[in-house]
Structure formats: C-alpha cells, structure tokens
Amino acid sequence: MRSILLALFLVLAFHHGEAAVSCNAVVGDLYPCLSYVVQGGNVPTNCCNGIRTLNSQAQTPVDRQGVCRCIKNAIGGVSFSSNNLNNAQSLPAKCGVNLPYSISPSTNCDSIN
Asked: What residue range is the signal peptide (predicted)?
C-alpha cells in the first residue's frame, strides 16, 4: 500500500496545471488525509485544515478545475480499493467543507464553475 501512496504523490507532485493552485499545493494540503483514506477511523484535524485551505485557495473556476484534475489524475494513476475511494469521497463532508466536485475518478472537472 505504501508504494501506491508514493506513486499517488509522485503523480501529483509532477503534474502541473494552468491553475493558480499547483498540484504541489494540493499534495501538501491533502497529505495529512492519507492515514484516513487508507485506514479509516477518525479524520485527522490537519486533514480538515488542509481541505479547508485548499477549498479557500481555489477561488476561480480555473483553480477549482485544476485542483479537481490533480485529484482525479492521482486517483486514476494508482490502484485503490472501494473502501479507500469511499473514505476519500467522505472527507469533505466529514470536515464540513462543500466542494463543488466529488473526489471520484468519474468526476467531470470541466463542468465545475
């Protein structure tokens, strides 16, 4: 599982979009969430702080689409279980953040406003 997570972060770290929020920022903000995505349990406080920060930094449609693409590319680039995906998808609600997209490999990032 660690090799999958390393691959996830390598994909994110080296993917650069046009948005003001870089994939490196996405990695930094979401890194504290990995333990929850992999193991479940309690969501770490730093994870929710990162999701809130990321959401507040992505102010424009281009920014939100770029963040969505970083997350979607990472999900598409590694093997994951349905449990991992369910944990990831539940994060925004568990942190009280309303993201304009779902954390899912089937999300259409181009339709985000």
From this structure: 1-19
Distance of CA 78 to the CA centre of its chain: 13
Instruction: State pLDDT tens for residues 67-78.
Output: 999 988 877 777
Rounded-to-5 percentages of helix, strand, coil across the chain: 65, 0, 35
Tell me the C-alpha distance between 58 and 19, whole Å.
9
* CATH assignment of the domain containing 59: 1.10.110.10
Q: Which H or E run includes 95? A: none
Overall average pLDDT of the 106-110 stretch: 92
Do the domain assignments include residue 110?
Answer: no
Read off the pTM. Answer: 0.77
